[in-house]
Specification:
Length: 88
């Protein structure tokens, strides 16, 4: 959700990372970037099915996490302490 909605520090990523966006090497070969890989492999509904965390909770927590700089302890505590239905 953070990547999908662009809720990350784009300037920081642009200035301090390599491979986040799709890229082309010196021989002209295109490579899948981290962002595109995550967006294609970790759709919210798929993550919800795998983790048992409801889609609306994933979306809400991702937005809360991204809107706090640095993330507030309450958001982190919520994520780490909640037992979801799929957990035993």
């Amino acid at each position: 959700m953070i990547l999908k909605e662009g809720l990350y520090n784009k300037e920081f990523v642009s200035n301090h990372s390599f491979g986040f966006e799709n890229w082309t090497d010196a021989k002209g070969r295109e490579h899948l970037g981290f962002k595109e890989f995550i967006l294609s492999e970790y759709e919210t509904s798929r993550v919800s099915r795998r983790t048992g965390v409801p889609v609306d909770v994933i979306i809400r927590l991702a937005r809360e996490f991204a809107s706090n700089n640095p993330p507030s302890p309450s958001v982190i505590e919520t994520v780490l302490s909640t037992r979801w239905p799929s957990q035993h």
